[in-house]
Amino acid sequence: MNPIDDTADLGFASRAVRAGQVRTQEGEHAEPIFLTSSFVFANAAEAAARFSSGTGNIYSRFTNPTVRVFQERLAALEGGETCIATSSGMAAILATCMALLKSGDHIVSANAVFGTTVSLFNQYLSKFGVATTYVRLSDLRAWEAAIQPNTRLLYLETPSNPLMELADIRALADLAHTHDCLLVVDNCFCTPALQLPFRLGADLVIHSGTKYLDGQGRCVGGAVVGDRQRVGTDIYGFLRTAGPTLSPFNAWVFLKGLETLTLRMRAHSEAALQLARWLETQPAVARVYYPGLASHPQHELAKRQQSGFGGIVSFDLRGGREAAWTLIDATRLLSITANLGDAKSTITHPATTTHGRLTPQERAVAGIGEGLVRISAGLEDVADLQADLERGFRLLG
Ligand SMILES: *Cc1c(COP(=O)(O)O)cnc(C)c1O
Asked: What is the DSSP letter of 234?
């Protein structure tokens, strides 16, 4: 009952609003939430047919109509064949590894990936005989040197958190395919509104829907996008068996979030660029990390690979931890929280929060200093964000 059956030829913003919706006989305009754990059958024969064919709704651990709309919409935006939604971003990463790896396999991962991803690889996958080697995100030679005969996945996020370093997705996809590996890109920071990893050769795209897909800090969830065999069969098989599926309510929040994704990512990017340029003029600031700045060492790659520079900006304060904490504590508008991708701007001290579990040496290698501050630019007026930070800058003299 959708007036538009095939949204494939529509533009990105149109797909973000329209893809995946199927109207019921009620003629609803907005997508309904199917809060139901199971589904009924017309008769015993239909029940038997659904169970034996594996198609059609049976139980919401397997499929749910609201979750399906979100999955189809995100797949349409990323340009992937299919998408499977998960209960969190971490569940998306776990499901990918459980479905595609076996004991004796090897991962090469960027060292600058989400901290819990490193814990998942090191504490849990290692117990099942899957080893991980970490390399610097932007060092193509290091990636190549780390690949072993048993390497199956190259894993990365770009831009990285919190230093906004970029990976050359095209070059790493070529490298992965030369060595019979898959390139997995966590596209959480850019979202498909700013970066399309499949167009650059990536095999799988991971999302934490918790961040920009929701966009207002409400629900935890995630997704994997990719081809029908790996995602639609292998990863889906793990999910319906092990159960870290997305709830219909959270799927609904995310699919409504996707409708405004294009506008929000543009606004986040504009605010972050304005903040980054302004921060560069502050005497207390030693260095600003933002791919949209001409001073960013990979600015050209960012312009080529992304259609916007994203909402995250980090900077080093000359005064170390004391200065960072002074600046953070002086804010009243920015929220002191480690989350990101929200309409509300957030401010974080990575060295003592998101990266606090690393040793000082590990932090030094990763380039995360005591004076580093990360901001996720929200949707408030930039002038108000600047005024909020200025209070702290005045205290720093
Ligand atoms: C938050 C985050 C994750 C984990 O997602 P959850 O939804 O918190 O499980 C993975 N990757 C990146 C880049 C993230 O920011």
From this structure: I
What CATH architecture applies to the domain 264-396?
Alpha-Beta Complex (3.90)
**12-259 and 264-396: identical CATH topology:** no
Write the DSSP string, 102-120.
-TT-EEEEESSS-HHHHHI
**Residues belonging to the chain:** 397
CATH code of the domain occupying 12-259? 3.40.640.10
pLDDT in tens, 134-172: 999 999 999 999 999 999 999 999 999 999 999 999 999
| The dihedral sign for the CA sequence 194, 196, 202, 207 | positive
Report domain extents, the chain.
12-259, 264-396
What separation in Å is there between the alpha carbon of 231 and the centre of ligand 1? 19
Query: From the CB of 90, is ligand 1 less than 6 Å away?
Result: yes
Please report which helix (H) or strand (E) contains residue 286, including its range: strand 285-289
Mean per-residue pLDDT, 368-383: 97
* Residue 43 Cα to ligand 1 middle (Å): 43
Per-residue pLDDT of 301-359, as tens digits, reads 999 999 999 999 999 999 999 999 999 999 999 999 989 999 999 999 999 998 888 88
Ligand 1 and 341: CB distance under 6 A: no
Pick the residue whose CA is nearest to atom 5 on ligand 1.
89
